[in-house]
Design goal:
Largest sheet: 8 strands, mixed
Strand order of the largest sheet: 12-11-13-1-14-15-4-16
Shape: globular
Structural class: alpha/beta
Distance between the termini: 17 Å
Length: 402
Amino acid sequence: MARAFLVVLDSVGCGGAPDAAEFFNNGVPDTGANTLAHIAQACAKGQAETGRSGGLRLPNLDNLGLGAATRLASGDETPGLAADPSGLWGAATEISAGKDTPSGHWELAGLPVPWDWGYFPKSNPCFPDDVVEAVKQLAGVEGILGNRHASGTLIIEEEGARHLQTGWPICYTSVDSVFQIAAHEDRFGLDRLLALCEGLAPLLHERKIGRVIARPFVGEPGNFQRTPNRKDYAIEPPAPTLTDWVQGAGRKVYAIGKIGDIFSMRGIDDLRKGPDAKLMTHLSDLVDEAEEGSLTFANFVEFDSIYGHRRDVSGYARQLEWFDAQIGLILDRLRPDDLMIFTADHGNDSTWIGTDHTRERVPVLGKGPYSGQIGLVAFADVAASIAAHLGVKAQGPGRSFL
């Protein structure tokens, strides 16, 4: 019985979104943003030499059609990505009014977001008084730190010392529909941070704030580091998604990375987490072990969380090359009727202004019984295609491109 693997390279967009002008970074529209093409161009110009050197080398993904998909999506040049595609390849366009993780993943899973997300104003302070009071009561503290739009790593550097002195949680947001709370695992306590976020989530979900995110860190001033114990408390999808369709058909669904958080564990039987290196091991194991007829849904987040938001071009290129090398060891072990699809949930152009996600199309690459160009498709078509491959009835608006 056929198996399917849906692998999301978080933020690895390929430009060309027709509505990019409606989305902004520091007041500048995302028009022209292109994560993959701009990184490839920077590498070719010798502008991404930290920890690596030369042109961008992604032979496995490019052989499937990565460069071709990027050129199809945007028309931009992709130096170093010029292979003649041997896989299934194309690019997908999102219709949900957001360039964030839940919007992208829900729509890839067949459910465009049916509402407008709530956001916090770019003011200082930015959170309503009742939200601040709820945090204080739930945490048992007299105040909070932050209360503004900020980069997660920078605000820990800026507020970490005061956090250790006062014990107050660091609360911040971004242009995405999120409320994030950073706290020291030892000084504040990991269990206490998770309980705070879980208790606060219903209040914010009522306002269509997509996620409350626990951001634990460790260390001392000047040497703070975020830990892998992040947890997202996301709004539950309002209708069945791909994971529900597959589970409802009596098949097993495996989740790798933050998929369990994004879908509130709906339709998921088995969850495996960790940093990206560990997630690659999980994916490799499931290629060998996953049940017949099953779906494995994976997210590799470090492209986005470590390199994209920090505008680290060299780091993003290194991560792409690491992923490509590792996935090359896995692709040849797929069974003849397996389908593995690679895609992304949004962009995060590390050459772009600001620190936020960028509105882009995303590549759609497939390794399995199918090959050839699928053209420009919809995010929801990914779910419909996987359902068709598994012989499961699709319930969303997408159409299979197989």
